Amino acid sequence: MSQHNLAKKNRTEKSLLTRLVAGAATFALALAVAACGGTPAATGDDATADVGQEQQATVAVSVTIDATAGEGESTTVDVDVPEGSTVYDALVATGADVNASDSDYGMYVAGINGLAGGDFGDMSGWMFEVNGEMAEVGCSQLEVADGDAITWTYVTEFTE
């Protein structure tokens, strides 16, 4: 083989070897990224931002469920709900077992944690107050504000 052909063969082999090493390195990098979750870690300002999602503002409210008139217990749960949530949304956010249906006045809460209206007479059922005041609208129509104290009380007689 001539000197010229030998040099050309060596360059071809070096070029092929370089390509193989580069390909292996690229494959190893891709494999490492995939094994770590597929995306590199965020740095700087990106580290605190949730890509593609904005954090929704919330309000903190206290929800008391007083079932003592129905021979139950009174419990209070603090919940964070999205801004614009209603008294009904806050009740559901407590994790209580809520039996409700839509009515002409919004959601009607028929039962909470197995205690339903009518269980202790025809005039028994659930009422709610916000910050100690009876509401003039339904529970699914009244928006809550940060710091509100909501009380759901089971009564055996509706009185004014």
- Number of helical runs? 2
- Give the percentage of residues in beta strands: 25-35%
Could you state the order of secondary-structure elements as H and E? Answer: HEEHEEEEEE
Number of strands: 8
- Identify the overall geometry: globular
**Average pLDDT value?**
79
> Low-confidence stretches at least 5 residues in length (pLDDT < 50)?
20-44
Terminal residue distance = 112 Å
- What is the topology, as strand order, of the major beta sheet? 2-1-8-6-7
Residues in helices, as a percent range:
25-40%
Major beta-sheet overview: 5 strands, mixed
Structural class: alpha+beta
Radius of gyration, CA atoms, in whole angstroms = 33 Å
Write the layout of secondary structure elements.
Blueprint: H1 3-35, E1 58-66, E2 74-82, H2 87-93, E3 98-103, E4 106-112, E5 115-116, E6 125-130, E7 133-134, E8 149-155
Note down, in words, how this protein is organized.
The protein is α+β, with helices and mostly antiparallel strands and 160 residues long. It contains 2 helices and 8 strands; from the N terminus they run αββαββββββ. The strands form 2 sheets. It has a 5-stranded mixed sheet with strand order 2-1-8-6-7. A hairpin with a 2-residue loop joins strand 4 and strand 5. The termini are far apart.
